[in-house]
Amino acid sequence: MDPRLKQAAESGSIDELYTLIDENPYILENIDAVPFVTTPLHVAAASGNIPFAKEMLNLKPSFARKLNTKGYSPLHLAVNMDQNEFVRRMIWLGGLARVKGRNGITPFHLLAQKGNADLVARCLRGSPE
After folding, report:
1. I need a surface site. Which of 20, 87, 90, 125 has the fewest CB within 10 A?
2. pTM for the whole structure
3. At 37, is the secondary structure helix, strand, or coil?
4. Dihedral angle over CA of 13, 57, 43, 79, nearest 10
5. pLDDT (tens digit, 9 = 90+) per residue, 45-57?
6. Residue 71 and residue 61: Cα distance in Å, rounded?
């Protein structure tokens, strides 16, 4: 991934994202072509940058289910990094809490292992609220 794109995802700079897209309209497509890769959505999830993540989901919804080279989706990373607000907003989107990662573990499993009763309950209800 272009280091500038990684920095934009870490800092949450949507303006920088579009500057990079203007420079190379295929920047996100090139990332998506790789079967296992850290996407800008992975970086935003680990950093808890919700507005950037929403923009990325609008542009490339496929990134939400993509696993990185360690076998984790963006939601797996958000759970692991205790980005609870990010998790709260994303768990109910398109079954993302049930995306199987490394060893068949889902973000839902990770939430249960961490003992986060509120987020586990939200997953079970399938509720965005």
Report:
1. 125
2. 0.88
3. coil
4. 130
5. 999 999 999 999 9
6. 18
What residues does each domain of the chain span? Answer: 3-125
Q: Which residues of the chain form beta strands (DSSP E)?
A: none
Answer whether residue 60 shows pLDDT above 70: yes
Distances (CA, A) of 112 to 17, 18, 108, 122: 34, 37, 6, 12
What does the block give as tokens for 105? 């573990």
What is the token pair recorded at 91? 């768990």
- The tens digit of pLDDT for each residue in 85-107 reads 888 888 878 788 889 999 999 99
Q: Do 70 and 49 touch, CB atoms closer than 8 A?
A: no
Q: Any idea what the Cα angle at residue 99 is, between residues 80 and 110, rounded to 5°? A: 30
The encoded tokens of residue 57 equal 């989901």
Number of residues that make up the chain: 129
Distances, alpha carbon 10 to alpha carbons 46, 59, 61, in Å: 8, 17, 19
**CA nearest 44: which of 23, 22, 66?**
66
What CATH number was assigned to the domain covering residues 3-125?
1.25.40.20
Would you state the structure tokens that stand for residue 43, as one six-digit string? 């970086």
